[in-house]
Design brief:
Blueprint (H helix, E strand, L loop, with lengths): L31 H14 L2 E4 L5 E4 L2 H9 L4 E2 L26 H9 L3 H5 L2 H18 L1 E3 L4 H14 L5 H17 L3 H24 L8 H7 L9 H32 L1 H9 L4 H11 L7 E4 L3 E3 L2 E3 L4 E3 L2 H4 L35 H17 L1 E6 L4 E2 L7 E3 L1 E6 L2
Helix pairs in contact: 3-9, 5-6, 5-14, 6-7, 6-10, 6-14, 7-8, 7-10, 8-10, 10-14
């Protein structure tokens, strides 16, 4: 709290009382509007806030502070706590959980496989996967766009990028969903069961590429195996960890983003039809949707030395979250921040993918996957709308983890 404030007793995400030691309560799975209202209050009156939840952590809520922290990797470290709540087993996997220079060869190897030509080349296959995965909902006249289409299709994005066998996609979709739900619930046993399944997939992938390497520009596992920092190969188990992280990271956000976008378009049918009629607007619209419905609020750092901001000091060792969802609705940066606006002059300043060394490596792939998923949904329907209440995400995300829709297929 700022020094001139009294202790806060009711700034939780749902307006519930919180302890005298907390400025806010991020627990539970309230409606996304309640989460955004909480961050708006923090931006106004408590820009450096503390919560007792998840073992205690700090949060920054203003765009300028969050961006500066994300870009200062020497002060704001990722190697201690990269997410709140963190994996209950405390495992550290590269590159997300490593600081430079240790993280750099892993990031370089993955970036090599995400160049524009390679990513754009995946679009035809992804379009076919999207149409096939949407078909069950079209036949049924609806369903949960986040839990069904939004959960199944991203598995194909990962499968195509990693050059996995097609039979892996449904296994990955089920396993990743179970893993992330257990992680949110902080259930170590269930987290471990599903994580080990993904580790098995990663180990099999590494073993296969050791036997038969593929071009490093087109295959992440081969690219990691080819890295030689200081003339030595990367540790095999760390390569497995990096691929295990790659298996799940693209499965968490897309269902939430797609659920949030479809909720918005269900409430703004004119915009839905405009995007259906003018698909050339989709790239710009998607950027504004990403700003408005950024799914992350739990990415975290720990400081390498005490840091004082707005009259409060964050001590060494205590995690501090960088809620990009809050930064992207900061009215000092984005006019009418809670409103969807095509043509924002500073739209590219949004932080949906983070900033700095740990900016999302899969950003071009995520953009492509979301664009294909949304375009397919619009192309294959004449109209869609909400069929019930949405379910809000728990930390470390924010958005619609469940969004039931009715679909009217295009004649």
């Amino acid at each position: 709290m700022n020094p001139d404030q009294a202790p806060r007793t009711g700034d939780g995400a749902g307006g519930d009382p919180v302890s005298a030691g907390s400025d806010f309560d991020p627990t539970g799975n309230p409606h996304p509007d309640e989460v955004h209202a909480m961050y708006a209050r923090l931006r106004r009156s408590c820009p450096v806030a503390h919560s007792d939840a998840y073992g205690g952590h700090w949060t920054l809520s203003r765009y300028t502070d969050i961006r500066a922290a994300a870009e200062d990797s020497a002060t704001f470290l990722s190697s201690v706590r990269a997410v709140v709540p963190s994996d209950p087993r405390g495992l550290r996997r590269p590159p997300l959980n490593f600081d430079a220079p240790a993280h750099t060869p892993y990031r370089r190897a993955l970036d090599r496989t995400l160049q524009r030509r390679r990513v754009e080349g995946l679009e035809p296959a992804l379009a076919a996967h999207a149409r096939r995965e949407l078909e069950p909902m079209l036949r049924a006249g609806g369903g949960d766009v986040a839990q069904e289409y939004g959960a199944r299709f991203p598995a194909w994005v990962t499968v195509e990028w990693l050059n996995l066998s097609p039979d892996v996609a449904p296994v990955l979709a089920r396993t990743a969903s179970r893993w992330v739900n257990a992680w949110r619930d902080q259930d170590p046993a269930e987290v471990n069961r599903n994580s080990e399944r993904m580790y098995d997939l990663a180990r099999e992938l590494v073993a296969d590429r050791e036997r038969e390497p593929r071009p490093v520009e087109r295959d992440p596992a081969s690219s990691l195996l080819a890295e030689r920092p200081d003339g030595r190969p990367l540790e095999r188990e760390q390569i497995v960890g990096a691929l295990r992280q790659s298996l799940v990271v693209g499965m968490v956000a897309p269902p939430i983003v797609l659920g949030s976008i479809c909720t918005h378009l269900s409430e703004d049918r004119a915009l839905q039809q405009r995007l259906r009629d003018h698909p050339e607007l989709l790239p710009e619209a998607l950027e504004e949707f990403l700003r408005l419905y950024t799914p992350y609020r739990g990415f975290a750092r720990t400081v390498s030395h005490p840091v004082t901001r707005h009259g409060r000091t964050i001590p060494v060792g205590e995690p501090v979250t960088l809620p990009y969802a809050s930064a992207n609705r900061d009215g000092t940066v984005f006019d009418e921040p809670d409103t969807f606006r095509l043509g924002r002059p500073n739209l590219r300043e949004h932080l949906a993918f983070g900033r700095g060394r740990h900016r999302c490596a899969g950003m071009p792939l995520a953009r492509l996957g979301l664009r294909v998923a949304l375009r397919t949904l619009l192309d294959d329907t004449a109209d869609f709308g909400l069929a019930g209440e949405i379910e809000g995400a728990r930390m470390p995300e924010v958005g619609a983890v469940s969004a039931p829709l009715t679909l009217r297929p295009r004649p």
